[in-house]
Design a protein that fits this description.
By secondary structure, the protein is of the alpha/beta class. It has one domain: Aromatic amino acid hydroxylase (Phenylalanine Hydroxylase, Orthogonal Bundle), CATH 1.10.800.10. About 45% of the residues lie in helices and about 10% in strands. A 4-stranded mixed beta sheet has the order 4-3-6-5. Helix 6 packs parallel to helix 11. It starts with about 20 loop residues before the first helix and ends in a 13-residue tail after the last helix. The structure holds fe (ii) ion.
């Protein structure tokens, strides 16, 4: 949801097929081959199992209709191709209608480990597996609906809820701390930063605290919120998120825990 990008999304042809070059398919192949072995012990079981359900190709970029077919069968979601970056209203509208907006370009080789914009590897590998989980899917839909009901000036506050869960969420499990956020599971660098280092701060998930916490999109996260179960997100689907935003605004935004630049 950042404002500018040096990438352009690829446009599907009249049959909905997206054409990738050999180099672009090679990038997917390298990214997925590198990332899957790194997930062991770092990513929650729900994600690992969902990855099996998705059954992504290893040698080429997946086509969006292939991904949508699996999501439709499980939770009724689908994937919608979008420009590299879209505005909040389009983003919330798609989520509220159980359509996951996916940028379709793939990163360049010199940004293998980290890029600010979401590419197809991040969108599909990172985001879509957990959309087969009914609790996670329901929360994401409720988030989109809250976005549509919120005033424009509250969009950036509500976006923090997505950032600290869907993008960069961690979960406490009986086997230890694991990740589920797409920004972590799709990034080799962030995965190590979040799970192997003692650099980031961890806080138990509290929606009001989350809504009061600013973030930066261009650095490894200095702070993560941890849930105990996806039930915490599911239960939030029935909460009045607009009132929570108002309360967060009344209590004000916390001081950032990082050098100030580009507060969201
Ligand atoms: Fe994302």
């Amino acid at each position: 949801m950042a404002k500018t990008s040096t990438y352009q999304s690829k446009i599907p042809d009249s049959k909905g097929f997206i054409h990738y070059s050999d180099e672009e398919n090679q990038m997917w192949s390298e990214l997925i081959s590198q990332q899957i072995p790194m997930l062991e012990g770092k990513v929650c079981n729900e994600f690992i199992q969902a990855l099996d359900v998705m059954n992504f190709p290893l040698d080429r970029n997946p086509q969006l209709h292939e991904v949508s077919r699996v999501l439709q069968k499980t939770t009724g979601w689908s994937v919608e191709p979008v420009a590299a970056l879209i505005d909040f209203t389009s983003f919330y509208t798609l989520l509220a209608n159980r359509k996951f907006p996916a940028a379709t370009f793939i990163r360049r080789r010199n940004e293998m480990d980290y890029l600010q914009e979401p590419d197809i590897f991040h969108e599909i590998f990172g985001h879509t597996p957990l959309l087969t989980d009914p609790r996670f899917a329901k929360f994401t839909e409720a988030f989109g609906k809250a976005g549509l009901a919120a005033n424009k000036q509250d969009h950036a506050i509500l976006a923090r809820l997505y950032w600290f869960t869907v993008e960069f969420g961690l979960i406490q499990t009986s086997q230890g701390l694991r990740s589920y956020g797409a920004g972590i599971v799709s990034s080799p660098g962030e995965l190590s930063h979040a799970l192997d280092s003692d650099i980031p701060m961890l806080k138990p998930f509290d929606p009001l605290e989350v809504l009061r916490t600013p973030y930066r999109i261009d650095i490894y996260q200095p702070l993560y919120f941890t849930i105990d179960s996806f039930d915490s997100l599911f239960e939030l689907s029935d909460r009045d998120l607009i009132s929570l935003i108002k309360e967060a605004r009344r209590l004000d935004t916390h001081e950032p825990t990082y050098p100030v630049k580009n507060i969201a």
